[in-house]
Amino acid sequence: MLTFTSLYPNAAKPQHGVFVETRLRQLVGSGEVSARVLAPVPYFPFRSERFGAYATFARAPRSETRFGIEIDHPRYVTIPKIGMTAAPFLLYASARRAVARLLRSGHRFDLIDSHYCYPDGVAAVMLSRHFGVPVSVTARGTDINLIPDHRLPRRLIQWATERADGLITVSGALASRLAALGVARNRVTVLRNGVDAELFRPVRPLCSDQERKGSALAVSVGNLVPLKGHDLVISAASEIPGLDLWIVGGGPERSRLEALAHKLGVADRVRFLGVVPYERMPAVYSAADVLVLASQREGWPNVLLEAMACGARVVTTEVSDVAELITDPAVGTWVSERSVPALTQAIREVLATQSSRDATRSHAQSFSWEATTQGQLALFRDILRRRGLNGP
Known about the structure:
Blueprint: E1 2-4, H1 18-29, E2 36-38, E3 41-42, H2 53-59, E4 63-66, E5 69-72, E6 75-76, H3 83-104, E7 112-115, H4 117-131, E8 135-139, H5 142-145, H6 151-163, E9 166-169, H7 172-180, E10 188-190, H8 210-213, E11 216-221, H9 230-238, E12 243-248, H10 254-263, E13 270-274, H11 281-287, E14 290-293, H12 302-309, E15 313-317, H13 322-325, E16 332-335, H14 340-352, H15 357-365, H16 370-386
Parallel strand pairs: 1-2, 1-7, 2-5, 3-6, 7-8, 8-9, 9-10, 11-12, 11-14, 12-13, 14-15, 15-16
Antiparallel strand pairs: 4-5
Helix pairs in contact: 3-4, 4-6, 9-14, 12-15
């Protein structure tokens, strides 16, 4: 199998697309599939840190091995202003050369496993047609929730989904979004992300002031962008005396969020942790009494399961399939109104509810990766059978 996606970790950005890597690791771990990863990176010529995030692209290796899986990172050109429109074609041009090199070197694969509908999925379908290999495309969130609002990307997504051999979404809500784009619902397989209960488990909490003064701790995790609603969480925390708040993530909104905390008089209770390495997140979740997710939209909210697997209860907006994820008041709640009053009330109720961290973890463990792995295997076998090819 060739996994094709720009959403994949590399040595320069080890947390980028880690949810794709986790699903692939679980699949390869079944022993039924071997995989090679083609994870293109935007071209940028300078590695100096003075160029900020762009230099990170330059520092990504051309190839590497992670968890026993070989990964290639070919470069593709991105063009300002017209980047969204041209992206699938530029991505395809780079990937076609990279795939040809793999084939010339003796590599063979039965199926292309692509993640993110646009531009990756569109480019993957182009690769499928050029090399005569079946392709499965996984929709993950913004690629279906937001990008189809643009006319040309929507038409290209529709073109690709019509021609893909298999379609996967990480939630029922995303499957409904695909249906709204004209995709027959019976062509879509819903395979939710699971939780790695070995990594995400109660550990020694990250050292914190609240351990000394006995206050409650809320955590908000996600890129510092308006979509994630960290401002709503800060405002809610300001309404709850004695509640400390940690915000995990990096992004352009940090200075605005810090200013908001000062304006509301809670700067001494709000701590910005920045980007925390994935493997260190269990220590953050283990310190938290409640994880608050105030997002406007999510493909599948991995942070909820990760936090619960570490024993932290959750409060979330009504995104994705949370109604199926949070079925017991003892592990948390979700609010249908994305507002400060609604979040404030929900946080208060969760903190007032007696529940053991063991019970919360047990609930999260019921969302294992096994069903997702078996669902992928069943779909991939069906694709190969329909194409008249041998498969696992």
